[in-house]
Design brief:
13 helices, elongated, disordered C terminus
């Protein structure tokens, strides 16, 4: 079907969208597209935004602004139905298998999103920029729109019941902390995805870590802090010289945190070190009635 579409030169808005949609299908599927075809798609994206609809049967209404119409069609393309197959497959997966699937799908999806962002450069530079300047916080550059769709229609669905992506990440990080061999790329790619999915509606160029924190960091820090508490209790029960033993444990934990720098963000590592010291040294000193000086 795509081959038939690409052999004809679209003139009406409906034909242009069919042409562009076929191109978007190819890009998001990871298929190779020749330079000439990509240029043709770029031209049609520009034509869609700037040329009148030559179809006499098209009803001329308020919303015949071609750029608004194109943006609306892209948003509809990446609606919930687009992710149905991915959601169904992810529902059957758990733990490392889930991370492997998520990481692979994300890499392909993110690459496609970058291609589309360049393909619709004119739309971004003119209509999207103007809408944002006029206060439309629900309008995003194409790349951000595509990522927003992943978060809303795939990630949130995946996390809806038991937050199994979060659990898979923490389980793999725990195995790594305990000295197990893992594929750190799985964690790194997934956490990079979560960091990318945070959208600052006030300034889309500014990094927001809200999604990363909600779906990983907050739970990870709480889980780690609980582990430190249990370690502290065990050290108290087994050692007369608690603080000597605690200092050794803190250093061991700091070494583990440094090793996890392959995938943990620097600010997460810093907070983890702070909580480790606070629980094993600070809180424990308070419980024992000892004043700790810095």
């Amino acid at each position: 079907m795509a081959a038939d579409i690409f052999t004809s030169f679209p003139r009406t808005r409906e034909e242009r969208w069919a042409y562009l949609r076929a191109g978007v299908d190819l890009i998001m599927s990871g298929s190779q597209i020749s330079y000439s075809r990509y240029q043709s798609l770029y031209t049609q994206a520009y034509n869609y935004c700037t040329s009148p609809d030559t179809d006499p049967t098209t009803e001329k209404t308020e919303s015949t602004d071609p750029q608004a119409d194109l943006y609306s069609k892209l948003a509809e393309y990446f609606a919930a139905d687009y992710f149905e197959a991915s959601r169904k497959q992810a529902e059957e997966l758990h733990d490392e298998d889930l991370l492997r699937y998520y990481s692979s799908r994300w890499s392909s999806y993110d690459t496609g999103a970058n291609y589309l962002n360049r393909l619709f450069t004119f739309l971004n530079r003119h209509w999207v920029k103007r809408q944002r300047a006029e206060g439309r916080k629900d309008v995003y550059p194409v790349y951000t729109l595509v990522l927003w769709s992943w978060r809303e229609h795939f990630l949130l669905s995946l996390q809806q019941h038991d937050r199994k992506l979060t659990r898979a990440l923490i389980q793999l990080a725990e195995r790594h902390r305990e000295g197990g061999t893992i594929d750190t790329n799985l964690i790194n790619n997934t956490l990079s995805s979560l960091a990318s999915l945070g959208i600052n509606t006030e300034n889309v160029q500014s990094l927001s870590l809200d999604t990363y924190k909600e779906h990983f960091e907050t739970v990870f820090l709480e889980t780690s802090e609980e582990r430190y508490r249990k370690a502290s209790e065990l050290l108290r029960a087994e050692n007369d010289e608690y603080f000597q033993a605690a200092e050794v444990r803190v250093q061991k934990e700091k070494d583990c945190i440094s090793t996890a720098g392959e995938y943990l963000r620097p600010e997460t590592q810093e907070e983890l070190r702070r909580r480790c010291e606070n629980v094993l040294i600070g809180v424990s000193a308070g419980d024992l009635g000892i004043e700790v000086t810095q």
